[in-house]
Amino acid sequence: xxxxxxxxxxxxxxxxxxxxxxxxxxxxxxxxxxxxxxxxxxxxxxxxxxxxxxxxxxxxxxxxxxxxxxxxxxxxxxxxxxxxxxxxxxxxxxxxxxxxxxxxxxxxxxxxxxxxxxxxxxxxxxxxxxxxxxxxxxxxxxxxxxxxxxxxxxxxxxxxxxxxxxxxxxxxxxxxxxxxxxxxxxxxxxxxxxxxxxxxxxxxxxxxxxxxxxxxxxxxxxxxxxxxxxxxxxxxxxxxxxxxxxxxxxxxxxxxxxxxxxxxxxxxxxxxxxxxxxxxxxxxxxxxxxxxxxxxxxxxxxxxxx
Length: 306
Description:
The protein is of the alpha+beta class. It has helices at 4-17, 54-64, 75-89, 132-141, 144-150, 153-162, 241-247; strands at 30-31, 36-37, 42-44, 66-69, 169-171, 176-180, 206-211, 222-225, 254-256, 264-267, 273-275, 286-295. Strands 4, 5, 6, 7, 10 and 12 form a 6-stranded antiparallel β-sheet that branches. A 4-stranded mixed β-sheet has the order 3-9-8-11, with no helix packed on it. Strands 1-2 form a two-stranded antiparallel sheet. The termini are far apart. 43% of the residues are buried. It holds the Pfam family PhyH.
């Protein structure tokens, strides 16, 4: 079997040769919470097809730290979840009047703090119970249809395919649904890796980042710092994705994707990642889910299943 270093070299060659059919890296104008990310600082995260074997996906995870898998779930199933979410929060006024909820078009208000969810609770102005969007999004997190989506068998079966030795694969109850508003300041997820937050158990869980709707590169989906599985890390690392990649990452690039409804991105518990800022010119809200899977028959951080 080739060494990890050789696999990383092969992966680097693959990233240089694979090109997206619809986007050129040099044309993208991406942003982090701190600054712009130019074409020299990014590379494509090449997706795997829907019929990729569990062995192929696991090999990507163990050698590259991340695997973007196409079509894990039916597209319409995911779009139905997107519609339910935005129908739930629509009374807050977050959507542009007269638009279809499934499109998730932002109303355009300059003060985006009016439309934060549980993940942004610390930035809400005034009492949380007086923030209509926060209350509606909080209710959505515990709605039966949201829980059903998090636990859907398409994802559970994918986890089982990747880890066939798991006796009882399940999705931990503490899931996170994030809605990133277009052009909102400071909303990009900072640089981090997951195990520091689930350190109450071994690093054997599997994270699935799920775009709930199409998420092109401009919408600030997750991005992964190439070849960082073996880097020493300390949890939440920086708000500045550009500076971190340059100063700590030794010039490593951020791997980005063009994610579609139905895709899932699985990543290793030590893979360093962040998100971009949503700069979608059509004003679409980026909705996504952070889900963690584990084997109930083995050790895991039980705090995340409460």
